[in-house]
TrEMBL record:
Native organism: Salisediminibacterium halotolerans
Signal peptide: none
GO molecular function: oxidoreductase activity
Domain NADP-dependent oxidoreductase stretches: 15-315
Pfam families listed in its UniProt record: Aldo_ket_red
Superkingdom, taxonomy of origin: Bacteria
Protein name per its UniProtKB record: Predicted oxidoreductase
Length: 327
């Protein structure tokens, strides 16, 4: 495993870490036994950072990672998110009393007194601009209830706005071969300010595994079914904002990335790790095999400058115009 600093914090985290949305729910059926095996495998392989949220299975994902971390002697860093359990557009959701309630529940779920990273979960731009929530997080940090705070954002513009607050130490952004916009402006500013970048939705909800066909069916409780056109939340969270069939076609155009790199998924994750601003990429998983498959990205060959330029042109010319939602 390779490790990187989370921005200017004192956390040194595995460059390939994991998100836990899939083991909490909204990705079809889940199996706790398999989820725990996946967490066990990840930690065995040197993964020391996991991202979760209070709405992933209504706290179930938090409980799973808390349970597994408690069993291990290794230091395991846990990040969670808040704000989506209530009306995320309502300013009252971000008031101190409510945020304390969210945090207390999260700490209880994971079985700790302090959370390593607490992130606002995709707040509206108006909440970021208002800034009151950042004062609340600063207070929680001074009290020792959280070590660091950050923001998970939907768009580059929201990320740039969040960087105006000095105690924001991490940004979660949608970043993958189909969503390259953050590279030009957001990443350089994050580096300058010592803010770590966590790359979420790195495989575009599975499109970048290269395994889907246009006829692919998803379970009724899978967001790739119920949110593929943004019916439940921001359409950009599902398939990186691309219409599904378009995404399948585009993924086929870049199948060449897997040459000498084991799988298309490993190659897509490796491409993300080629960017210096990235502290960690956080794919999801439901099984130990998926964990092992994603971890292959660490050891596969990197990309040449020519290949990087080719993939940038592919995004500019073939992908960008099709993206829906905030980005």
């Amino acid at each position: 495993m390779n490790y990187r600093k989370l921005g200017s914090t004192d956390l040194t985290i595995s460059e390939l870490s994991f998100g836990t949305w899939a083991i909490g729910g909204a990705w079809g059926s889940t199996n706790d036994t398999e989820a725990l095996k996946g967490l066990e495998t990840a930690i065995d392989k040197g993964v020391n950072f996991f991202d979760t949220a209070d709405v992933y299975g209504d706290g179930h994902a938090e409980k799973l990672i808390g349970r597994k971390a408690k069993e291990r002697q290794e230091e395991v860093y846990i990040a969670s998110k808040f704000g989506r359990g209530l009306d995320f557009t309502d300013p009252d959701t971000y008031k101190e009393k409510q945020v304390r309630s969210f945090l207390d529940r999260t700490l209880k779920n994971i079985g700790r007194d302090t959370l390593d990273l607490y992130q606002i979960h995709c707040p509206p731009m108006k909440i970021i601009q208002d800034g009151e929530i950042f004062s609340v997080l600063d207070k929680l940090q001074k009290e020792g209830k959280i070590r660091y705070s950050g923001v998970s954002v939907e768009s580059t513009e929201e990320g740039l706005e969040a960087l105006k607050y000095p105690n924001v130490k991490a940004l979660q952004v949608i970043f993958n071969l189909f969503r390259q916009k953050p590279v030009d402006e957001l990443f350089p500013k994050a580096i300058d300010q010592g803010v770590g970048i966590l790359a979420r939705v790195p495989l575009a909800s599975g499109l970048l595994t290269g395994k889907f066909q246009p006829s692919q069916a998803f379970a009724a409780d899978d967001h790739r079914n119920f949110n593929r056109d943004g019916a439940a939340f921001n359409v950009g969270e599902t398939f990186a904002g691309l219409p599904f069939e378009t995404g399948v076609d585009l993924s086929q155009e870049i199948e060449w990335i897997k040459d000498n790199r084991e799988t298309m998924a490993a190659a897509a994750l490796k491409w993300i790790l080629e960017h210096d601003a990235i502290s960690a990429v956080i794919p999801g998983f439901k099984t130990a095999k998926q964990v092992e498959d994603n971890l292959k990205a660490i050891d596969v060959p990197g990309f040449s400058q020519t290949e990087m330029e080719q993939l940038k042109s592919f995004y500019d010319e073939r992908v960008h115009a099709h993206i829906r939602g905030s980005y």
